[in-house]
Each structure stands twice: as C-alpha cells, then as structure tokens.
C-alpha cells in the first residue's frame, strides 16, 4: 500500500494519485477512517429500528389515548347518570352511530397495542431466563391478538335485534 | 445487601414505578373488559346481568380505583412525553410531576360524586 518513495531531492517523495485519494503532498499520512464510519464494506445491520419505532408509538398512541380514554370514562361513568344507565340498550344506542363505533375501535386497537408493548418492556426487564421470556411473550402476544380480534368482531357484528 | 447501597430514587423513580404498576393494571383490566363487553353478542340478558354487578357498591369502589390509576397513568404519560420532546422538559420534570399530582387530586375529587354517589346512596339509603 505504500505510495511514497524517498527521493534525495525533496525529502517528500512523489505521491501517487495525489488529489484523487486520501493522500496529498500536504497530507502524506494515510487517512484513517473513524472506527464506526459506515462504508460500502460495512455489513448490513441485522437489526432494524423496531425499538425506536416502538418507543415513538408509545408516545403517539399515548397522546391519542388521552382523548379517547378520558372521553370514554366521561360518557360511561360520569354523564347521564353514570354507570346506572349502562346496559344492552345503551350499547345499542351508541353503536348505531359509526362515529362511536370508530371511536371504540380505535381505542381498542391503540390501547391493546400500547399496553402489550408496555408489557413486553416489563417482561424484558424482569424475566431473565430465555425460556421464561419466550413463554411469557408467547402468552402476551396470544392474549393480545385474541382480545383485539374478539373486540373488533364484536364491534362490527353487533346486532341490536339479537333477540 | 450491604447497608446504604439500596438505590432510593426520588420523585422520578417513584413516578416511574407508579406509571409501570398502573400501566400493567390497566392492561389486565382491559382484557377482562373486552371479554365482558363481548357478552352483547351472546344475549342482552347475559350482558345486563354482568353489568348489574358493576353497579354494586363494592365494584363502584374498584371503579374509583381504576379511574385513579388511569388518570395518573394518562397525566404522568403526558409528563414523560414532555420530558422526552420538550427541550426544557428534563429541567422541569419535578415541577411537572407536582402539576400532575395537583390535577389528579382535583379530578379525583370531581369524580367522587359521579362514581361513588350511587354506592353511598345504596349503602346508607337515600
Ligand atoms: C390514557 C393515555 C395514556 C398515556 C398518555 C400513556 C402514556 C404512556 C407512555 C408515554 C409510556 C412510556 C413510558 C416509558 O417509555 O417510560 C407508557 C407506558 C405504558 N403504558 Fe401507557 N399511556 C396511556 C394509556 C395506557 C393504557 C390504556 C394502557 C393499558 C392498556 C397502558 C399501559 C402501559 C404500559 C403497560 C406501559 C409500560 C410501562 C413501563 O414500561 O414501565 N397505557 N404509557
């Protein structure tokens, strides 16, 4: 790799490819790349940005959930007589409107995914044995998929004239 | 454990613990809540029967606790977001926590009558 040769006359030998590469008369030492610099030779990262996306999702879903959940609590527990009014007829009245169907659907999906991701973090923090982690997460993901699907199905197939 | 080595964080640590505990609690509740609501697909009677138990005084008390957990998690969650995204968030994290607690106390007092009113009337007669 040596490109410089001692020449008696100048003290600095001729520099091959000066100007095109990292070497030059003014900078005869080879350019050393920063250790973490990404180049074409760097192997592709095998990790994506999943954890960063999850971190961001917790915050974005949190902001939306504040509106959805507090609105839900107000309607169900505070306004119009509180819990006392809740019953099949009340549910039928609300789900007759696409607005409240959409509200409840969004709340279901966001809260379940937000909560499941939060629980994933908690499992990662406390369960140390690989097998324990595997089983706990398997259980978590199963319960999450089941709950989201069941809830979605109930909202979409609700029948006010079931009897 | 050698004496004096137990990490005792200050407000920041305890708010983190409370955020975690309330988050897990709300998740478990949500799971059950979707199951009970699914009863509307079984029959109006099945649903109304379960909801009837929600109107008892003891469940009203549990409900008040659930609302307490959700309101804390929601308000403190907004604080966490502010700490992460607002340039001055970390500097004011403690003030924001006391603001959260202040709002939480006010909302919990406001929720007393709507949530527990009917239970009090039932227990002590109206
Ligand atoms: C009401 C609005 C809500 C807001 C503003 C909110 C906000 C947040 C934020 C910002 C985090 C991330 C904390 C961190 O990374 O340190 C978080 C964590 C979490 N949230 Fe929520 N959340 C809300 C509702 C919910 C609901 C409905 C559930 C349950 C279904 C839930 C369960 C959790 C769990 C389990 C964690 C993980 C706690 C941890 O890692 O310590 N949250 N929340």
UniProtKB/TrEMBL annotation, chain A:
<keyword id="KW-0349">Heme</keyword>
<dbReference type="InterPro" id="IPR000701">
    <property type="entry name" value="SuccDH_FuR_B_TM-su"/>
</dbReference>
<feature type="transmembrane region" description="Helical">
    <location>
        <begin position="99"/>
        <end position="119"/>
    </location>
</feature>
<dbReference type="Pfam" id="PF01127">
    <property type="entry name" value="Sdh_cyt"/>
</dbReference>
<keyword id="KW-0812">Transmembrane</keyword>
<feature type="region of interest" description="Disordered">
    <location>
        <begin position="1"/>
        <end position="27"/>
    </location>
</feature>
<dbReference type="InterPro" id="IPR034804">
    <property type="entry name" value="SQR/QFR_C/D"/>
</dbReference>
<keyword id="KW-1133">Transmembrane helix</keyword>
<keyword id="KW-0472">Membrane</keyword>
<protein>
    <submittedName>
        <fullName>Succinate dehydrogenase hydrophobic membrane anchor subunit</fullName>
    </submittedName>
</protein>
<feature type="transmembrane region" description="Helical">
    <location>
        <begin position="139"/>
        <end position="158"/>
    </location>
</feature>
<keyword id="KW-0479">Metal-binding</keyword>
<keyword id="KW-0408">Iron</keyword>
<feature type="transmembrane region" description="Helical">
    <location>
        <begin position="56"/>
        <end position="79"/>
    </location>
</feature>
UniProtKB/TrEMBL annotation, chain B:
<feature type="transmembrane region" description="Helical">
    <location>
        <begin position="21"/>
        <end position="42"/>
    </location>
</feature>
<keyword id="KW-0479">Metal-binding</keyword>
<keyword id="KW-0349">Heme</keyword>
<keyword id="KW-0472">Membrane</keyword>
<keyword id="KW-0408">Iron</keyword>
<keyword id="KW-1133">Transmembrane helix</keyword>
<dbReference type="InterPro" id="IPR014314">
    <property type="entry name" value="Succ_DH_cytb556"/>
</dbReference>
<protein>
    <submittedName>
        <fullName>Succinate dehydrogenase, cytochrome b556 subunit</fullName>
    </submittedName>
</protein>
<feature type="transmembrane region" description="Helical">
    <location>
        <begin position="54"/>
        <end position="75"/>
    </location>
</feature>
<comment type="similarity">
    <text>Belongs to the cytochrome b560 family.</text>
</comment>
<dbReference type="InterPro" id="IPR000701">
    <property type="entry name" value="SuccDH_FuR_B_TM-su"/>
</dbReference>
<feature type="transmembrane region" description="Helical">
    <location>
        <begin position="96"/>
        <end position="116"/>
    </location>
</feature>
<dbReference type="InterPro" id="IPR039023">
    <property type="entry name" value="SdhC_prok"/>
</dbReference>
<dbReference type="InterPro" id="IPR034804">
    <property type="entry name" value="SQR/QFR_C/D"/>
</dbReference>
<dbReference type="Pfam" id="PF01127">
    <property type="entry name" value="Sdh_cyt"/>
</dbReference>
<keyword id="KW-0812">Transmembrane</keyword>
């Amino acid at each position: 790799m040596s490109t410089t040769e001692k020449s008696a006359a100048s003290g600095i030998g001729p520099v091959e490819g000066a100007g095109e590469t990292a070497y030059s008369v003014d900078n005869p030492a080879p350019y050393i790349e920063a250790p973490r610099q990404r180049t074409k030779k760097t192997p592709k990262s095998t990790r994506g940005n999943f954890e960063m996306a999850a971190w961001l999702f917790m915050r974005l879903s949190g902001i939306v959930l504040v509106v959805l959940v507090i609105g839900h609590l107000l309607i169900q527990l505070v306004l119009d007589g509180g819990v006392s009014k809740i019953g099949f007829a009340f549910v039928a009245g609300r789900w007759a409107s696409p607005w409240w169907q959409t509200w409840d659907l969004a709340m279901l999906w966001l809260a379940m995914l937000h909560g499941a991701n939060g629980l994933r973090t908690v499992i990662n923090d406390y369960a140390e044995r690989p097998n324990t982690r595997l089983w706990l997460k398997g259980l978590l993901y199963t319960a999450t998929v089941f709950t989201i699907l069941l809830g979605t199905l109930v909202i979409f197939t609700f029948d006010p004239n079931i009897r | 454990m050698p004496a004096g080595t137990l990490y005792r964080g200050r407000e920041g640590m305890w708010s983190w613990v409370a955020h975690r505990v309330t988050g897990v609690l709300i998740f478990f509740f949500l799971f059950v809540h979707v199951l009970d609501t699914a009863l509307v697909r079984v029959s109006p009677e099945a649903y109304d029967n379960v909801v009837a138990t929600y109107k008892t005084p003891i469940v009203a008390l549990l409900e008040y606790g659930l609302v307490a957990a959700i309101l804390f998690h929601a308000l403190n969650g907004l604080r966490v977001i502010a700490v992460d995204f607002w340039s001055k968030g970390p500097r004011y994290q403690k003030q924001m926590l006391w603001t959260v607690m202040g709002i939480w106390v006010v909302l919990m007092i406001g929720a007393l009558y709507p949530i527990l009113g009917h239970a009090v009337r039932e227990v002590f007669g109206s």
